[in-house]
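Inputs:
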Amino acid sequence: MARIVLEGVTKQFGRTTAVDAVDLEVEDGELVVLLGPSGCGKTTLLRCVAGLEYPDGGRVRIGDRDVTDLPPRQRDIAMVFQSYAVFPHLKVFDNIAFGLKMRKVDRSKIRDSVERAASLVELSDYLDRYPAQLSGGQRQRVAVARAIVMEPAVLLMDEPLSNLDALLRLTFRAELKKLVSELGTTAIYVTHDQVEALSLGDRIAVMNQGRIVQHDTPTRVYAEPASRFVGGFIGNPPMNFLAGQLGGNGRPELRIGEHAIELPDGSAPAASGETLVGIRAENIVPATEPSPGALPARTQVVEPLGSHLLLTAAIGEQLLKVVAPVDFPAQPNRDLWLRLEPAKLRLFELDGDRLPAS
Amino acid sequence: MTTQAETRAPAGRERQAVRPGARRRRVARVLLYVAAVLLSLWVLVPLYLITVTAFTPRDHIFDFPKPVVPTHLSGETVDFFARSSGVISALGASVLVALITLAISTALGAPAGYALARYAFRGRAAYRLAILSTRAFPIVILAIPLAVTFLTWGIFDTLIGVALMHTALALPFTVLVTSSVFVSVPKELEEAAQTLGCTPFGAFARIVLPMALPGLAAAGIFTWELSWNEVFAATILTLDHPTLPALVVNTLQGASLPYRFAAAWFMLAPALVGIFLIRRYLLGLWSRVGH
C-alpha cells in the first residue's frame, strides 16, 4: 500500500516529447486509469513509474521513498503487460512463483502463496501446464497472478485486456475490478478504451500529447469534460459540439444559429462572444412537434441500437447525435425539434478549453 | 495450406466456383514436387555414391554398372584412411580449431548480437552493414598478408592461428544470427523479470538465455561446420599441423581413388550430422537474418 506522486515527469525519445512535465498523485489504495489515444504517452508514463524508463526530468515517489533512481526490482511494484509477458519456458506454477523465488521466500510459503493467487484468478487446475497450452485469457490470468502474488505496494497494468476478445474482455474486466478492490492495492491502469477507463477507475487521468488534460472521477470526466478533446474522446457517441454565441442583456443567453436558449443562472460564464457548445447525446430531448425552446432540426439517419435509437440530426449545417427512446417515431429526412437540456450544456472556448463559470 | 483450405470449405460451393483454379494449383504443386525431387537428387546422389564407395572394398570400387543396393560393404577403406599418417592428428586439430573458433566467436559475437537486437544506438544500421561487408572481402587476398603477420607473431602453423582466421570468417554470421535469435525473445519478458526482482543480467540469464538456447546452439553448430569445412585459410596458414581439410587437400593429388572417397566421407559425415541436428532452425535463422 502506498501513495504514488509524480512531479514534473518528462520523457523524450529523440526530438519527440512522450511525457511532458506530468504531475500526478495516486492515493493509497486508489485505482487510477491513464486514458488517452495511442501515442499520448500513457504507457511511457507507466513505464517511468515501473522503472523501465528513466525520466529525463522530474521525480517519481512511491510511498515515502523517492524511487526515481531505483531499478524496477527495488521499487516494490508489479506489472501486468499488454502482451502478457508470461515466461514460455516455465510452467504456470513457476511463472507465478518466479518473483517469490527471486526474493528467496521459502518453498512451502511459495507453494501456499502461489496456490492462493492461482485460485483468485481461477487457475488452480492449470498449475502444471506450460503457457503454450493455455488460451489468451488464461495467460493473462497467469500474468495477473504473477503480479499480485508479490503483494506489491503498487500494481501497474498496461492495457491488460486489449489482447483479449470482446466477450472475454467484458467478463475479465469485472473480475479484475473485484480483485483489485479486494486487494486494496494502489494501482495504475493504462488503456485507450474509454469504457474500460470509466468502468474501472476510481479516478481517470486523461492524457493527450504527453500531458494530463484532466484528472477526475469517471462521472465528472464524463459529465464535465475539461476540454473539447476530453468530451470528444470519452463517451460513445462522443459529445456533440455546436458553434454558438454567448450574449443576452441581463439574462445569460446562448444563440445557436437564429435560435436562443436561456441559460440557468450561475451556469453562464462571464465571457461573451463566439463559443463552442458541448452536449451529450442523451441530454438532448427530441420531439416531432415544435415546442418553446426547442431547436428545429432535420433527421438524417436513424440507427436502432436495441435499448435506444441513435439519431443523426442536422441543425443548419451542424450535425449532432441524439439518443431517443426505442418507440420514438423517427424517420429519416423529417423535421425534428431538439430541446438541449440547459443544465447539461457545457461551454468551451473556440480553441477547445472549457470556459470558466462566473 | 491448400489442402486445409479445400477440406475446410463447404464441398459443394467450392467445387463449382474454384474448379479451374484448383486444377492449376494441382499442376503447380506437381511441378513444385518434381523440382524439389530433382534438386534433392542433385545433392543426394553424390552423397550416396561417396558413402557407398567409401565402404566398398577395393576390388569392387570400379564395378560398373553399380548395383542400386550395394552388395559388397566393408570398413576397409575408411579404416585404411584413418590409419594413414597424419589423419588422426589432423582430425584432432580440426576438432580443436573448430572448438576454439566456436568459443571465441560466441564470446565476441553473441554480446554484439544481443546489442544489435535490443539497443537502438547511433549507427546501428551502419554497424550491421559493416559486419555484413566483411563477408565480401575475399579471403584469397587476406590469406597471404595474414600468413606473413602470423609468422611475425609466431602463431603461424598453430591451431590458434587457424582458429583466429576462422573466427574472423564466422563472426559476421554469429553476430547477425544471434541477433535474430535474441530478437525473437520478446523484450517484455526481460522487463517482466526485472519487475519481479531480477537484475538486468539475471533477467538475461534466467529468461532470455534458456529461450534463446536452441537457436544459439544451432548457430554454434553452424559455426562449427564453417570451421570444419574451411580449406583455403587452413591450407595457407598451416604447414606441419594441418586441419583435416588442409591435410586432405595436400595429399589428395597423389592419393588412390579409395583413399579419396574415404577422405570425402570422413569430411562429409560430421557435417551432415550437424546439419541434420539443426535442420529445424536453419530456415528460421536464415529467413530472420534479413530483418
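Residues 1-41 of chain B form one domain. Flag for discussion at group meeting.
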